[in-house]
Amino acid sequence: MPKSQKRAQPASSTGPLILIAVGAVLILIVLILTLINSQAGGTQANVQPTAISDIPYPEIDRVSLADALTAFNANTAIFVDVRSADSFNLVRIPGAVNIPLEQIESAIPELERDAWIIPYCT
Questions:
Q1: Is residue 99 scored above 90 in pLDDT?
Q2: 7, 67, 71, 120: least buried by Cβ within 10 Å?
Q3: Beta bridge mates, 81
Q4: Strand, helix or coil at 62?
Q5: Residue 111: its H or E element
Q6: Which CATH number fits domain 65-120: 3.40.50.720, 1.10.10.10, 3.40.50.150, 3.40.250.10?
């Protein structure tokens, strides 16, 4: 074979594999960073919602989810479900007391005076 003719060399199959590996590593990094950021944001305690006009009674202090969970785990609060009895019977916080909202005013004297009462409706 004369020197002027060159043989066609087969295309390298490692090029696409390297691109796929680099892409997979980048996706993995993004997923890890997203997970880290979501966990860091979820550990903030005592974050209160901003008083927005569509929140009923914005002047009333809200209990953060973290504080409610701490009170539940320590058994330092009474959880009062203000939904109907039917809704309460479907699903509720374990140990919660059901006092429907329309009966709450008359039931207040029955509740422990110095207890931390956390009412909820969902």
A1: yes
A2: 7
A3: 98, 120
A4: coil
A5: none
A6: 3.40.250.10
Residue 29 backbone class (left: φ over 0; alpha: ψ -120 to 50; beta: rest): alpha
| CB 33 within 8 Å of CB 26 | no
- Gap between the Cα atoms of 66 and 26, Å rounded: 33
The pLDDT tens digits of the residues spanning 8-35 come to 555 566 767 787 877 777 777 777 777 7
Residue linked to tokens 């009412």:
119
By the 8 A CB rule, do 115 and 76 touch? Answer: no
Classified as helix, coil or strand, 74 is: helix
Residues 66 and 45: beta-carbon distance below 8 Å:
yes
pLDDT one-digit tens code per residue, 61-95: 889 899 999 999 999 999 999 999 999 999 999 99
Q: Where in the chain are the domains?
A: 65-120
Q: What angle do CA 25, 26, 30 make, to 5 degrees?
A: 115
- Give residue 76's pLDDT: 94
**Residue 121 token pair:** 């409706």
